[in-house]
Design goal:
By secondary structure, the chain is an alpha+beta fold. The protein has four helices and ten strands, in the order H-E-E-E-E-E-E-H-E-E-H-E-E-H. The strands form two sheets. Strands 4-3-2-1-10 form a five-stranded antiparallel sheet, with helices on one face. Strands 8-7-6-5-9 form a five-stranded antiparallel sheet. A hairpin with a 6-residue loop joins strand 1 and strand 2. 34% of the residues lie in helices and 29% in strands.
Length: 202
């Protein structure tokens, strides 16, 4: 027969173990939620036109990045997500160009464009996302569009290149190596996370 003192401790140890498990689980969940909710931005004013280009990076574990524009940078809430230009397990952002007149921003990513020559692409990588500040139009894949269907990506690359040429040609704006991100607080991140959720539903 076990001593009475040992038997009395068994239920206590079980309770302590359960409490520690619950605390650990809550801690891991809180850490994961914080990591997923992280938002960092790198913003750059347009050199010639009133407007702002923003690169929005989310997540600390599986990073996505979005190209965002704000035609009215003095007014918070006027931002528009053009599209996702980095996918954690997919394509990646290389660089962005402006039209010479400063009215078009265009991004290159490592997504598709396999059937295009370098002349048609406008360089080694195709243009995949663009925003026309003058006409307030977006040329970009939908959030859920597959990058496996080559034709729409090729068509967009040609369309964006032609638009840049109409506006005086393409001028290098920034590349992935020179983006300087500022991490936002949890409370400032909430607005951006809501925007991303709405974008994903388009």
């Amino acid at each position: 027969m076990k001593p009475k003192g040992v038997l009395e401790w068994i239920p206590r140890l079980i309770v302590i173990g359960v409490v520690l498990f619950i605390i650990t689980t809550i801690g891991v969940y809180a850490w994961f939620f914080k990591e997923v909710s992280k938002v960092s931005i790198a913003s750059y004013p347009l050199p010639a036109e009133p407007g702002e280009v923003i690169f929005l990076r989310t997540g600390g574990l599986f990073t996505d990045m979005y190209l965002v524009v704000n035609p009215t940078p003095d007014t918070e809430g006027g931002e528009l997500i053009v599209g996702r230009i980095v996918q954690g397990d997919g394509y990646h952002f290389y660089d962005a160009s402006l039209s010479k007149d400063g009215t078009v921003i265009a991004a290159r990513t490592g997504a598709r464009g396999d059937n295009l020559s370098r002349t048609e692409q406008g360089g080694q990588f195709p243009f995949t996302h663009a925003y026309d500040f003058k006409n307030q139009t977006v040329i970009a894949p939908a959030y859920k569009e597959s990058s496996e269907a080559t034709k729409p990506w090729n068509d967009r690359a040609i369309q964006i290149l032609q638009l840049l040429q109409k506006r005086g040609g393409a001028v290098h704006f920034i590349d992935s190596q020179h983006l300087y991100f500022k991490q936002l607080s949890y409370f400032r991140s909430r607005r951006w996370n809501r925007m991303i959720s709405e974008y994903k539903q388009r």
